Input
Amino acid sequence: MATLGIAQSGNPLQSNELSAVHFTEEGVGEFRKPENFTEVVSGLTKLFSEKNININHVKAYLNSYDVKKEDWQNFVTFDDNKYTRNLIWEGNGKFNIMLVGWNKNQASSIHDHSKSHCFMKMLDGKLTETVYQINKESCKLETKRKYQLEKNTVAYTNDSFGLHRISNNSANQQAVSLHIYSPPFQSCQQFEEDGGKPKHCEMTYTALFKEQFSRLERGLVMRDHKVNFSEGTVSEFATPQTMSDVVDGLMHFFSTNDVNINQVRAFMESYEGDKNQWQDYALFDQYKYTRNLIHEGNGKFNLILVCWNKTQSSSIHDHSNSHCFMKMLDGSLSETLYNWPTDEEKSSNAAMMPIRSVQLKKGSVAYINDSIGLHRVGNKSEVQGAVSLHVYSPPFQMCQSFNEKNGGKMNCTVTYHTKFCEKVNYCRS
Output
């Protein structure tokens, strides 16, 4: 992935862009027809590993897949109030795959695709795609054309085609569609038919099935690169003076698939954390601690500033197989460690007992992964806020939260309060 330059001190750091994805329309070469959903994902990973992606080849490949409900039915959810976006696969940084569940009479907003290319295969039911164009005189939207998308139909769009809305107009049947977005995008613009300024919206997932899917069949040979962590000797490095230096150093350490925990920890410890370097990202909330995204890294990590108002704390939680480095920049925090509930404890609804509590003072660095245990982090002070800098590798969008009284757990979507100093408004396309 390409690394963008870092903004100067006092300005928001901008997100890394993915390596450019180039699309062409050429003749379709030979390919092996996918026999199941797992082979569909494997084949798409191979197609999107090419420097130039042939739109016609991807469409033909998807069209060749004979839909079998037993292949995908465990990877889609439905909601009575809104359509659902279920992440299946994150492929090599150039594309992602999701299943979208449409309940009866559900529809998306009118939206763009943030310069992404979208391929869609109908797996079940019927959908209607309505394409819109903007009337330059009235600034209102006009219907350009409509398509009926029936089972096995393959559709393709990008922003040059116009805006669109997808809808399930059936009053008695659900629908399921397979979507491939390249490159993946985190936000889009929503539009109203009567015109007006478009609304910027962050995209969210209803459910994450990528781990379950990766375990579905050993035959899935095209996998994302996995980061391997070890504890090795610390080599010399330049001490970071600015937040930009921190990002540059992390980009270097995570440029390989083999990451030295001790090296990253020593690097984070060496950063003095001048308040002028991070205060623009430090946005507090009266009711909950906040997660403020500074940088999205290179796909192998992200960098987040967490702000803890007086007496605020997290739940007891895991880290979804991620590794977490935490640097205290201001104030102090208490980290309480818990063991994972055993089968016996879960069956008896036993309370979770802390095994260790550590006071994290300004300048200290903590490290945790799921093999160490679960933890809760909190600011016990009634007079002072606290700020911590977190590195997560790999980034994760969902974790498990645990009830201290009985060990019960629930899946929680991980969200941001701000991204690059801009408040995030979560809504759906």
About this structure: The longest strand covers residues 141-149. The longest helix spans residues 37-47.
